[in-house]
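Submission checklist for the structure archive. All mandatory fields must be present; incomplete records are returned to the submitter.

[x] Identifier: Glycine cleavage system transcriptional activator
[x] Organism: Paraburkholderia sediminicola
[x] Residue count: 309
[x] Sequence attached
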Amino acid sequence: MNRLPPLRALQAFDAVVRNKNVVAAAESLHVTPGAVSQQIRQLEEFVGVALFDRESTGLRPTALGQIYHEHVARGFECFHAAHTALEAAQHGTHLTLSTFPSVATHWFASRLDKWHALSPGVRVHVEATDREPKRGESNWDIRMTYGSPPADGAHCRPLFTDRVTPVCSPSLLRADSPIEQPADLLHYPLVHVEWGWDERSPPAWDDWLRAAGVAVPDTLAPLTYSLSGMAVDATLRGRGISLGQGLFTADSLKQGLLIAPLKISLPMPYPYYLVWQPGALDTPDARQFLDWLTEEAAQTQREINAILG
């Protein structure tokens, strides 16, 4: 049997490749940068090849280093999957759903009771973060995210492409300023969402106004938020009219807390989709949760289509 390198050296190697520098790798492992560098040297001596090119900006994996890391990373994924399976066998299934804060608060939270009623023995922890977690990290099992799905389609399930349309609180509307055509919206304050994600951000007010055939004013001066959930909350409080995503406003529209005065909508630039860790669906409970999430998203899409036409 071939002798294997020390586990700590492999951990250091994996951390440096994932974090792209020694300092960040050391922080993730709770050791000093010197200790990480020593483990990398020991691993290169063990395998007999250079795994990194030393550059002024840090360490860059060589071609052989990249090949080696692909296999090492899969090994650590198997370790995490084994630990998850053991915990599930001991204590019952415990799943961590990672998603954006706005998705967690304005879509998933209202549906969590339905899941608990369906599967009371399966614990679900929600990790709300804008940061996209990496495969192999232990703080998530399934993530509901947005953007371009992985090209290989592995461990991924597309959901739907959301739409945005003007929404407001009924209390905002004035009898002397009815909204009967798109230009009427300019008589009210506008609430804007800007994620700062370049082409992935939702359509802006100037996009919607042009699509509706309205000349865009030189100054829209909207109230701007970086989180869609904050914009929805401001809209519910009657602060203005927002371009609300169906995912975050469908429930409030059904309840009459918000109204959509005009049925002109624009699609989001990218779809929402689910991704999961290798091994995350090894249990029937996890597969059931994934299927349930998929159906809840499909139901929301049907509701959005019914509201917006």
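[x] Structure attached
Curator remark: The chain has three domains: 7-76, 92-161+270-308, 163-267. The chain has a mean pLDDT of 89.
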